[in-house]
Design a protein that fits this description.
The complex is a heterodimer.
Chain A lengths: L11 H13 L2 E2 H7 L6 H14 L2 E6 L10 E6 L1 H17 L6
Antiparallel strand pairs in A: 1-3, 2-3
Chain B lengths: L5 H10 L2 H24 L3 H26 L9 H30 L7 H28 L7 H33 L14 H8 L8 H31 L4 H27 L5 H26 L10
Classes of the chains: A alpha+beta, B mainly alpha.
């Protein structure tokens, strides 16, 4: 039986998150909200990040709080190699189709 | 000072599974606590309270998303949000069809060509009839697609919302559109004075010092509007009872689901005629079909409960 190839889908918000993560390396959820300049919202970013982790685009790890600081450990997000390839493919595809929008 | 988000987290932990807590709720709370701690340490108390407020709003957005699109009583059921969307789609299609059919029918009966504004005049009535039919279609739909369906709780909540919408249509919106249609003078009068009265106006009309000539008609119409508003609840409860008693016979379940609203409307039409004619009391004429639906649903639910072992779960749809 042949395994069905996985279909990759990426929404506009997921692409934005991937671009931010690829450029910065890793971010906390709240840092993504700030870096997006209002395009990402607090109420939805964590849900989107969870979905992206299911798709294999990002990975996350718990970061211990700095000494003296209170609060729960924060979750740090970073792109996976697949996530980096998705961003690269999307950017190259966009450049191919619409060269005037290349960055 | 207690870290913010502690109570929110405790609340979420009572209903969310461990995966949702770890991947969505805990990161949100952790980021809130970090940001709040930073603001307090920097002496910015007002900013800290602003952060707390924004994070609380975000938390409830996540909980609403979970209730609408994630929570399921069993893995093969539709979420409440998806069920509401499917119901709304069926209601919209059914309402458009009923509106078009009524428009064509009135055009055949009237002596003059009808303006397209008649579609607007007939829309509230079409929508009121479409609400229970659309709900029933949405309940039957997942069973046809091979899924178990939706949870009884979601069905009854949506039926309650549909009943409220139906009531608003019958009580206020339909009289308003009927009056506007007549005042615009764009075609033959199709409604009549009764259809232009709100429920409050009908109540006052019925309790004037000089009772109306045809009290049976007015009282029947008054009770009909209340009874039709309750029909989505009655039909939804009957349908979930049918679904549980025919869980192994999907075709029968779907056939009964379609026959439910059609049968209800046929029964309502017949009993309304008796009420208008004064043969039976207006309240009995209007409410008899609902009582029959509720009694049938209760009998089916009791028979399922007698047949089902104690260990079976509560969800039937």
């Amino acid at each position: 039986m042949h395994a069905r190839p996985r279909q990759l889908s990426v929404s506009a918000k997921e692409l934005l998150i991937l671009e931010l993560l690829v450029s910065a390396g890793e971010f906390y959820g709240l840092q993504l909200v700030s870096a997006s300049k209002g395009r990402l919202k607090r109420g939805t970013v964590y849900v989107t990040l969870g979905r992206m982790e299911d798709k294999g685009y990002i990975t996350s790890s718990l970061d211990d709080p700095p000494p003296g600081a209170g609060g729960m450990p924060r979750r740090l997000y970073a792109p996976t190699p697949l996530g980096r390839r998705v961003v690269k493919a999307w950017t190259e595809g966009a450049t191919l189709v619409l060269p005037e929008f290349s960055r | 000072m207690t870290m913010p988000g502690t109570w929110l987290r405790a609340f979420a932990a009572r209903s969310c599974d461990a995966e949702l807590m770890a991947r969505v709720i805990d990161p949100l709370i952790a980021d809130l606590q970090f940001e709040w701690d930073e603001a307090i340490t920097g002496g910015r108390a007002i900013r800290a309270w602003g952060i707390r407020l924004k994070a609380t709003v975000a938390f409830w957005q996540v909980m609403a998303w979970r209730a609408l699109f994630v929570h399921r009583t069993s893995p093969d059921q539709m979420s409440a949000g998806r069920f509401a969307a499917v119901s709304a789609a069926f209601v919209a299609v059914t309402a458009c069809l009923l509106d078009a059919v009524a428009f064509v029918r009135v055009g055949q009966l009237a002596d003059e060509p009808q303006s397209l504004w008649l579609l607007v005049d007939l829309a509230p009535r079409a929508l009121a009839l479409a609400l229970p039919a659309g709900l029933v279609a949405a309940i039957a739909w997942p069973r046809r697609a091979g899924r178990r369906g939706v949870s009884t709780r979601d069905v009854l909540w949506l039926a309650f919302a549909a009943s409220m919408m139906c009531f608003a249509l019958m009580a206020w919106i339909m009289p308003e559109t009927s009056r506007a249609f007549r005042a615009a003078g764009v075609g033959a009068i199709v409604s009549g004075p009764l259809m232009e009265m709100t429920l409050a106006q009908m109540w006052q009309f019925l309790h004037t010092s000089q009772p109306p000539m045809d009290a049976a008609t007015v009282w029947t119409n008054f009770h009909l509007r209340w009874a039709m508003s309750a029909s989505p609840l009655a039909l939804a409860w009957l349908l979930t009872a049918i679904a549980s008693s025919t869980s192994r016979h999907r075709v029968i379940g779907i056939a009964l689901a379609v026959a439910g609203p059609v049968g209800y409307l046929a029964l309502l039409g017949q009993s309304a005629r008796l009420g208008f004619a004064g043969v039976i009391s207006p309240a009995a004429a209007a409410w008899a079909p609902n009582v029959i639906l509720f009694a049938t649903a209760l009998a089916l639910a009791l028979s399922v409960r007698r047949r089902t072992p104690m260990s079976a779960g509560p969800e039937v749809a």
